[in-house]
Amino acid sequence: MGIELSVFDTVLGFQVEPGDHVRFTLDNVTHSGIVLDVEDKGDKIDVTLDDDTEGDSETFELDFDDDVEIVGYAEMDIAV
User: Fold this and answer.
1) Is CATH 2.40.50.140 correct for 2-76?
2) In what order do the strands lie in the sheet with 67-76?
3) CB burial class (10 A; 0-12, 13-18, 19+) of residue 53?
4) Residue 63: its H or E element
5) Nearest one of 66, 42, 52, 54 to 5, comparing CA atoms
6) Is 35 left (phi over 0), alpha (psi -120 to 50) or beta?
7) In this structure, are residues 36 and 58 in contact, taking their beta carbons and an 8 Å threshold?
8) What is the mean pLDDT of residues 20-39?
9) Looking at the DSSP assignment, which residues form a beta bridge with residue 6?
C-alpha cells in the first residue's frame, strides 16, 4: 500500500471554500495547498493557500469559472 495525491472533484473557482485541499494552474505553473481564505472581488476571487510546495501562504487571483481540482491523499496498491 502507498499513498498518492488524487483528484476527487473539479469545481469552478467560485465554489472553492476554506479548508479545501486544491490544485490549479495559472500561467503554466501548478499550485496546490489548503485554502485558508477566499475573497470575492466582484468578477474575480482571491484564494489564499497554505502552499504545500513552498511552505508558506500565498494569494492567487482566479476567475469565477477557472477549473480547480479538489485533491486529497488516497491509498493505492503497489505491486512489488
Assistant:
1) no
2) 2-12, 67-76, 21-26, 29-40, 44-51, 57-63
3) exposed
4) strand 57-63
5) 52
6) beta
7) no
8) 94
9) 72
pTM to 2 decimal places: 0.80
d(CA 77, CA 65): 35
Of the two residues 45 and 73, the one the predictor is more confident about is 45
List the chain domain ranges: 2-76
The owner of cell 496498491 is 77
Half-sphere exposure of 4 (CA within 13 A, CB side): 8
Q: Cell numbers of 80, please? A: 512489488
